[in-house]
Write a structure and sequence with these properties.
Layout lengths: L2 H16 L8 E2 L2 E2 L5 H13 L22 E3 L15 H12 L4 E9 L4 E6 L4 E6 L5 H15 L7 E5 L2 H8 L7 H15 L4 E5 L7 H11 L7 E2 L4 H14 L1
Parallel strand pairs: 3-8, 4-7, 6-9, 7-8
Antiparallel strand pairs: 1-2, 4-5, 5-6
Helix pairs in contact: 1-2, 1-8, 4-6
Keywords: Endonuclease, Hydrolase, Metal-binding, Nuclease
GO biological process, one term: DNA replication, removal of RNA primer
Catalytic activity: Endonucleolytic cleavage to 5'-phosphomonoester
Amino acid sequence: MSVKIRRLAIQFFIKQIATHPFSPLIHTNDESNLQLVEKDAESLRVTFHSLNCIPDHVITLPVLPHSNPNLCEIFLKDFRFLSKEIPVSIIATSFTECIQSFFPNHFIIATDGSKSHCYTSIAGLSNIQQLSYRIHPLNSVFTAEVLAICQALDELAVPEKDILILSDSYSALSSLKNITFHSPKVIQRLASKIHVKKSMNQNISLLWVPGHSGIFWNEKADSLAKQVTDSTSFLEWIASEAIISNLKKNSQSK
């Protein structure tokens, strides 16, 4: 089997892992059962070993995927502080006025993702607590930004209030706003988490904030994400898209 064909086979199997539990190759009754010939199985083992991860770490579709673009309110350009015409010097003040006027009773959470030559990381904070994690270095900034929101919903949200999440990732929020069944698996995961909150009568709103514009919440989340060290806890999730991209990159360099 040629190197290219083997790579394509591995990419195919990784896509099947990521679409679990909907892949007919994996789903057998209530069990995960991916049966491969020995050569393919060995290639897959070598691939995951080289990445220092296992198939269970791959971000998969949620059991109940959601592709409803109206799942929650997502604000990308609705407020004065988001106008391109507003001077940077007054963005922070205008942001504060926006929160006081439109979200006075929301519980605020800020999130951020970061990628450097040392670490890929996520962070989040509320006025009660904060979180930060290292994640697999192959993950993109986009995946990091979305994972940060997912983790914040798990760890930082409070049950008795509606939630306002602040993120400086326009691409992440735009992707969620325009979600389809073909959206990245991590976006599908985020949509599922929001749906669960909504089913418990808790509304989630997401607000884009421009980065490095003096907004305290964003500056703090950015700082937390960049302050991770080797001792920071590690989240093992990895996007299938990152694995496939890495396989293609390595094949082109040979």
